[in-house]
Amino acid sequence: MPQLDLSLDAAQLTAQLVDIPSVSREEKVLADAVETALRELPHLEVLRDGNAVVARTALGRAERVVLAGHLDTVPIADNVPSRLEDGILWGCGTSDMKSGVAVQLRIAATVPEPNRDLTFVFYDQEEIEADANGLKRLAEKHPEWLAGDFAVVLEPSSGEIEGGCQGTLRVLLHTTGERAHSARSWMGRNAIHGAAPILERLAAYEPRRVEIDGLEYREGLNAVRIEGGVAGNVIPDACTVTVNFRYAPDRGEDEALAHVREVFDGLYEDLVVDDSSPGALPGLGRPAAAAFIEAVGGTPQPKYGWTDVARFSALGVPAVNYGPGDPNYAHKRDEHAHVDKILHCEERLRAWLTLNGSNPA
Amino acid sequence: MPQLDLSLDAAQLTAQLVDIPSVSREEKVLADAVETALRELPHLEVLRDGNAVVARTALGRAERVVLAGHLDTVPIADNVPSRLEDGILWGCGTSDMKSGVAVQLRIAATVPEPNRDLTFVFYDQEEIEADANGLKRLAEKHPEWLAGDFAVVLEPSSGEIEGGCQGTLRVLLHTTGERAHSARSWMGRNAIHGAAPILERLAAYEPRRVEIDGLEYREGLNAVRIEGGVAGNVIPDACTVTVNFRYAPDRGEDEALAHVREVFDGLYEDLVVDDSSPGALPGLGRPAAAAFIEAVGGTPQPKYGWTDVARFSALGVPAVNYGPGDPNYAHKRDEHAHVDKILHCEERLRAWLTLNGSNPA
């Protein structure tokens, strides 16, 4: 079994991690290596569920911080083993997100007495369909393993803090009509024409901008699909507009749906929810978060896409993305990470978790 | 080779015709039988092109009338041979349109000296794609064979005169935009929202009603299809609305297109003509038509669908549908025709073509 050497710095450790392939669903070898390495650390309790590994301190601190990352990568694209060149580490997972995992492991190994209790979460199957997601499984089976006052997901963010995330709701708005031959169109009722007020409403919609914890979120309400029509000579009796609402995390799922129903009130025959994921509040006002921002530096940005930070938010744990990788190179053949950014991330997190003299590195 | 007996009445002759199968593309046996029978009639010149047969008089009359019908049927549905029961003839093609063909053949055989010169057109491949249509082929290769002052297409019309036909134009209206992730919708431009004014214009459109030769035509402008969308989380950069304009035959093809362009002026990125077929003026004001209406009786109705009468109209020959079959039973397993309607149609046409003592039947 491959061994991990947690005495290496985070960049060297990233190379070790990259050289143990762990494409989604094939994380076992790497999960075993991570579990074995963590079990060497007497200050941590280690838990395992499938190919997810959780390790945590139990020091009775006032706050608990969760550091989370996924072990899996997208399929290898001729870019393993890793290769170090001029301060840049190339290879599958260097950015997304074995450099983040390396930082987690380094903090686990080198901060035995952190100023806050720590939970390290290493999970599987993040790069595939949401239903297979290892963090989702843990949240359902062992929510207590994920408990905490604040979570940092070390997904690639180029060393910037990205706070919370938008919610997303997708609904199908159906209009109906009556078929007729288009040569006798007055005998029918055109469902596509019936969708005109829906599109008008969308085109005229003024999306809200709202500031939460100092971050500005911009919402958006958009048709992402429209479909209607029977044949070139038939008045169509059905039309469907698929609408995607991306909303700021100060609205809940139900409020988002109520808003969409209100916007299109009276304009559709039927509304069907196709997909719904709540947003995540940045929670940057919490003491743990404020100290984190101060230690890490920079200006937090809102996260627009939907990420696993929302799973923590759903458990009542405010969460941010903060990782050394560059998201622009995630999933690419030329995926890479900068050694200095990896080391900087390790150093910043250590500083945050050892400040006030609790425990120098 | 099967023989046709033109001394039978039109209903009996219909049965003979039905009993010679002639599904589209397999009309040869029937076309041969029709040609052979017509060549027995010394007052007719007989022409042949593929499986189309044309026969005509050359009496130097002031007007020429064309009687046209197709020889082919839709696929047989266990309804051949024909069956006569209580004055109803059952079988494939009884309505559409071997009863009409039988009437043509009876007039050809029994009116050697008509009051107007006559052209009988029997053509192939009407029941399949327009490009294969035998009348279209004749119009292109031998337009002089179709020349005349007035044409009667003996398609099933339940013995009613249906005058002219609507034109039909189908255009694709394209709107464009710019793709973006729907979480950052302000980075893109939504092409589906861009189609809103097109649908509004359609929903608000007041179609024209116009009287031509005493027939009221109702136009219609309708979306018959709409398509747009890339993925559930992408602002779409393209949307296409397919619009069908059914117009009264006082507009030409170019005028119809100009009208559509004007209606949607400024609302689309691109307009592509998908399909265009001109309408046909009923031409009921022509002397031959007026005499026809008087002889046949009843109130002419406008024809809303597009039919082969428009091919005559395109050649400058006003045309109507008038045939003994019931269009509601065309293409059906229980296709049938009433013997008395077939005989009535034969009698009415003969009366029209022999009135004023030119030539009693």
TrEMBL record, chains A, B:
Residues 167-268 form the Peptidase M20 dimerisation domain. Keywords: Amino-acid biosynthesis, Cobalt, Diaminopimelate biosynthesis, Hydrolase, Lysine biosynthesis, Metal-binding, Zinc. InterPro entries: Bact_exopeptidase_dim_dom, Peptidase_M20, Peptidase_M20_dimer, Peptidase_M20A, Succinyl-DAP_deSuclase_DapE. It comes from the Bacteria. It catalyses: N-succinyl-(2S,6S)-2,6-diaminopimelate + H2O = (2S,6S)-2,6-diaminopimelate + succinate. Its EC number is 3.5.1.18. One of its GO terms (molecular function) is acetylornithine deacetylase activity. SUPFAM superfamilies: Bacterial exopeptidase dimerisation domain (SSF55031), Zn-dependent exopeptidases (SSF53187). Pathway: Amino-acid biosynthesis; L-lysine biosynthesis via DAP pathway; LL-2,6-diaminopimelate from (S)-tetrahydrodipicolinate (succinylase route): step 3/3. It holds the Pfam family Peptidase_M20. Its cofactor is Zn(2+); Co(2+). GO terms for biological process: diaminopimelate biosynthetic process; L-arginine biosynthetic process; lysine biosynthetic process via diaminopimelate. Homodimer. This is Succinyl-diaminopimelate desuccinylase. The lineage of its organism: Bacteria, Bacillati, Actinomycetota, Actinomycetes, Kitasatosporales.
